[in-house]
Amino acid sequence: MSRNELKRVKVLERVLSGSMTLAEGTETLGVSSRQLRRLKTKYIEEGEGGLIHGNVGRKPKNTISEELRRKVVSLYKEKYYDSNFCHLSQLLREHEGIDISPSSIGRILKLAGKGAKHPRRQVKKHRLRERRTQAGMLWQADATPYEWLGEEFGKFALHAAIDDATGIVVGAFFTPNECMEGYSEVMKQGIERYGVPLSIYSDRHTIFRSPNEKLTVDEELAGQEVPLSNFGKAMEELSIEHIKATTPQAKGRVERLWETFQDRIPVELRLLGVRGIKEANEALPELLKRHNERYKVVPAENIDAYRALEEGTRLEYIFAWRESRKICAGCSISYKNKIYVPKDETICFETRTTVETRETFSGKLIIWHKGRAVELREIERAHRDMKQNTTNTVETTRAPHKPALDHPWRRSSQYRK
User: Fold this and answer.
1) Contact of 233 with 207, CB cutoff 8 Å
2) 97: Cβ–Cβ under 8 A, 6 or more apart, which residues?
3) Strand pairing partners for 328?
4) Integer-rounded Cα radius of gyration of the chain
5) In 3D, which of 379, 299, 388, 285 has the Cα closest to residue 333?
6) Residue 29 sits in the same domain as residue 73
7) Residues 6+ apart with CB under 8 A from 284
8) How many Å separate Cα 324 from the centre of its chain?
């Protein structure tokens, strides 16, 4: 059964048991009440099989026969091996009397291990999206690996975020690879300089989304929420809407930014004599300032949409690695094989209380509980002395015991002479 069919079964079972009304069922499935009554009747009469599409398991009438498939592969190998799929379709129609579309030929040959002669990525048409009207309404974030300091230093990643309305690069940061630390540093730079944006647009990298975000049918019907990544939790805490693009063209503003940066920044860094990632990050603020002065545009509305950061908010605690822990005896927690207790001895949690640990990118560890940060200190583990006490050991020189010739151990065949 497909996912939609399985969902229908679950809903109909609840409707029949009385735990869900017809109105709730129609809203859940997105069908009319009349259609739901039809499905209900069919489910009562035929069971789950009545909800499965009638064509399941049937062979389509337009299926290409196995014999014809083998003939196409044979002709391609022996006669038309240097033609592309479209040309091959024409040749087969003209010379062999075989009428097969290029797409079908492509599928047949790919299954036979023969790829396209000149693989091409299909160009998708995308409608131009207008800029947001106010600064701070949307940031586009991305990262790209490139030889920013030349072949000698190899490729490393530049993370950046650009405001959609003004074209201002709000933050940028170099790291060896694309990572959460790079994106977090970019967000902190932008928030500290301009304010908290309303939304952010990114790709679907696992930095931004949990690999387990796809819910089962039961979890979806139970109203369970999608799990968030550490970055996603930070966005939720700052009330920033997180939009995940399905294509690079959807966030074309930041994609086009890389063309400019890859053309200009390596030259600027070379002229500055930069010789490493740390020096490159130190030079970035001035480079961003000059870039923004040259390329920024005036938004449609003068009023910006930025929100001020709440007083007392520490971004290093928001953009951090988060894990759940349970309080052990003595108000302690175990983290990376080390034991920690609150610095403030007046703070005490009940044993087995679930808390959230947050480790900053500088290595500082805290407990975040009920909206406040509890600083921790490490305590040494008690080490058991495993050395044996040999002071009273008596050395023995006695020879090992040797059983007598008539001992039962010697009665086996291997001892018989």
Assistant:
1) no
2) none
3) 332
4) 34
5) 379
6) no
7) 172, 173, 174
8) 20
d(CA 51, CA 11): 12
Residue with tokens 């196995």: 66
- pTM of the predicted model over 0.85: no
Strand order in the sheet with 333-335: 321-326, 354-359, 365-369, 372-379, 338-342, 333-335
CB-based contact 33:22 (threshold 8 Å): yes
Residue 416 CB-density burial (10 A; 0-12 exposed, 13-18 middle, 19+ buried): exposed
Task: Report pLDDT digits (tens) over 202-244.
Answer: 998 989 988 777 766 665 666 667 788 999 999 999 999 999 9
Residue 128 Cα distances to 41, 125, 251, 300, 324, angstroms: 48, 9, 11, 17, 43
Half-sphere exposure (CA, 13 Å, Cβ side) for 40? 21
394 in a structural domain: no
Alpha carbon 366 to its chain centroid, in Å, reads 25
Residue 195, pLDDT above cutoff 90 = yes
Same structural domain, 264 and 167: yes
Put residue 257 in one of left, alpha, beta given phi > 0 → left and psi -120 to 50 → alpha.
Answer: alpha
Give the residue-averaged pLDDT of 178-201: 96
Whether 207 and 77 share a structural domain: no
106 and 207 in a single domain? The answer is: no
Q: With contact defined as beta carbons under 8 Å apart, do 266 and 147 qualify?
A: yes
Nearest alpha-carbon partner for 191 in 303, 281, 291, 316: 316
Residue 260 phi/psi, 5° resolution?
-70, -45
- Joined together, the tokens standing for residue 48 give 């789950």
Q: 144 and 104: one domain?
A: no
259 in the same domain as 329? no
Closest CA to 164 of 192, 140, 195, 196: 140
pLDDT at 286 over 90: yes
**What crossing angle do the helices spanning 22-29 and 33-46 adopt, rounded to 10°?**
100
Q: Which of 34, 29, 32 is nearest to 13 (CA)?
A: 29
Together in a domain, 30 and 73: no
290 plus 324 within the same structural domain: no
Number of domains into which the chain is organized: 4
Q: Which two tokens stand for residue 314?
A: 């520490």
Q: Which domain holds residue 97?
A: 66-111
